[in-house]
Amino acid sequence: MVESTKNLVLAEFLQHPQEWLSGDLLANQLGISRESVWKAIRSLKASGHQIESKKKSGYCYQGSLKLDPQVVANYQQIKPAVKVLCFDEVASTQINAKDYISKNTIDAPVAITAEGQFGGYGRQGRHFVSPSGRGIYVSLILPVKDSKLEPGLLTTSAAIAAIRALSSFFPNKDFQVKWVNDLLLNNHKIGGIITEATMDLESQHYSAVIIGLGLNLLPVDFPAEIRAKAGSVMDESDPAVDRNVILAKILDELVLMSTNYQNGDYLDEYREKLILTNQEVTVQVGSEFINGRVTGIDDQGSLLLINEQGQAETIYSGEVTKIKLLSNLNL
After folding, report:
1. Most buried residue, 54, 197, 286, 293, by CB count within 10 Å?
2. Is 94 annotated as a binding residue?
3. Which of 148-152, 196-200, 288-292 ranks highest by mean pLDDT?
4. What's the pLDDT score for residue 11?
């Protein structure tokens, strides 16, 4: 069967969500035979698409168990839609994104996503557990048009963009952040943000930035060593949500964020979501460990604290390794 026939049938389903479409209607609408419709539906089901069939009613599209570029594009609100490349399993979407940049000119956003990762990583190269089909693991490549980056603002703003997307599906969940890049729910880490930039060697200017998001969406049996600190967005009581729809919303929010984050538009929301305010913490900066009480976030996304000597400090880059009253989140 020609792949385009499969895509045409899927497009018809996406235009009529939760509607029953007969084989005859699909064949007439698309100008193909009933047999071609049947073969396309069989192929779509084999690819993870949930299509219910009923005698005298036809077919009803229920969503997909796997990530699909066509489905993600259909649900994106920002146009033109972000180009999405989906893989079954990779070492890391960040690695794939860097490889893509090395072989292509980046003049528009591109997203690399995978069902699972066996080498997913976050800050400090720390491993991120990424079981297949249970989360959203995506690296969004964005062109850098003016060669100017604000790393602190970019990472903090990306965290809020992700939370805004999640909150549109789960409005009753209280998502929070731990500086600089951890997403939390019920005092458990559900995801993380990593931002990396690539440089053009000839011009010595930034050419692209990669925003990586690892998100535990569905319940996971986490390894014993992280079970106390790791969590998932959804639990057994939550209704099913197509991961394609959530990914589309996340991409919309991240692309929108990339156009205005340098104005500091996301900082107030980040401060509201920050779990560290007035907490006693230990921050690792390089090989140094600084103990103090967090007082807030400055206008560049840096961490503000009062150290043990009573002096105010601004931490531009580092990692909170210990939180006195939230020991399960300690690294």
Report:
1. 293
2. no
3. 288-292
4. 97
- pLDDT tens for residues 253-276? 999 999 999 999 999 999 999 999
Say if residue 117 carries a ligand binding annotation.
Answer: yes
Q: Are 270 and 177 in contact (CB under 8 A)?
A: yes
The radius of gyration of the chain's CA atoms, rounded to the nearest angstrom, is: 22
- HEC letters along 141-189: EEECCCCCCCHHHHHHHHHHHHHHHHHHHCCCCCEEEECCCEEEECCEE
CATH architecture of 69-273: 2-Layer Sandwich (3.30)
The widest CA-to-CA distance across the chain, in whole angstroms, is: 79
Domain limits, the chain: 3-64, 69-273, 280-329
For residue 297, is pLDDT > 80?
yes
Taking the C-alpha atoms of residue 118 and residue 95, their distance in angstroms, rounded to an integer, is 12
The CA distance from 243 to 67, in Å, is 7
May I ask the CATH class of domain 280-329? mainly beta
pTM: 0.93
Q: Are strands 303-307 and 288-297 parallel, antiparallel or unpaired?
A: antiparallel
Q: Which CATH number fits domain 3-64: 1.10.10.10, 3.40.47.10, 1.10.8.60, 2.20.25.420?
A: 1.10.10.10
- Give the pLDDT band (50/70/90) at residue 83: very high
Q: Residue 281: is its pLDDT beyond 50? A: yes
